[in-house]
Design a protein that fits this description.
By secondary structure, the protein is mainly beta. The chain has one helix and ten strands; from the N terminus they run E-E-H-E-E-E-E-E-E-E-E.
Amino acid sequence: MQGLKFRILLDTKTKAEVFRDILISENSDFETFYRAIADAFELKGDQMASFYVSNDAWDKGHEINLMDMTYDDDALDQPANVMNKAIIKDFIAEAHQKFILVYDFLSMQIFLIELIESHLMESVGPQVVLRVGDVPKRKGQEEAGEDIFMAGGASILDGEDLESEDYGFNDYDDDYNPEDLDGFNESEY
């Protein structure tokens, strides 16, 4: 059977070189490929994810979703591709085909994927054939094994607590002063 070797590069804020080469059958579906990537990068695999067919400039093209998100939308010109029904070889248009995988849309963990070889393979399942670099961990999360890279473009490698951020809500002065309510008694009104 024909095997495809992909290089999957983790896009990190630190620009550390972290990648895995995965060999997978051309007849495998994208969900199998997604699970192999999640395992190779020590991800839980419990977040939403999408593959995008890409070009040499790494532009996002056609989307392949983990789950069908169309909700029977008749206005769509093209039916959505779902990972478990999309076969990899059907999306290979060139010798060095590129894909982008976005894992966890809240933290936007991005993987740049490129087909680097095509040859016969003996095993049926996907296999990691090369590992380079360690997956970055959050400070204080090394023991928990949680994965993290970038969140909304901001680094959380330094252990910032995202829940404590105000997300810009405190950028403007609204002239509120708690002392203005001193002496206010609701029962009088």
